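Handout, section B. The chain below has 133 residues.
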Amino acid sequence: MKKVFLGGTCANSKWRDELIPILNIDYFNPVVKNWTPECMAEEIRQRKECDFVLYVLSRAYSTYSIAEVVDDSNKRPEKTICCIFNEKLPNSRMLALTKQELKHLNQVGEMVKRNGGKYFKSLKEVAEYLNNN
């Protein structure tokens, strides 16, 4: 069974809770309560071994997540996926991206696409792609 690395925005974002139930493939969720050097090593291993590396960027994205998705789109474009998540989740305090943030993140997504990776604008599109490839 194929497997996807669920990278990208953490910071109490609940996008993984929305995506996981609609996936028909295995996944690695790097989010843990206590981040340790062992967790970092496992994340690096999973990024290399998973069939797909997904980076979802939303309101609480980190600059490191942007660096990771661009790095992977250069090194492993055939398995790199970027998604700009600009939807407010039910029962969440996560705000939509501002026009300026959305513009900048869309430029990151287009860069990933130019590098040979995939770029989506919804979790539903991501799940459809992952479940059919």
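Note. The mean pLDDT is 89. Compare this with the example in section A.
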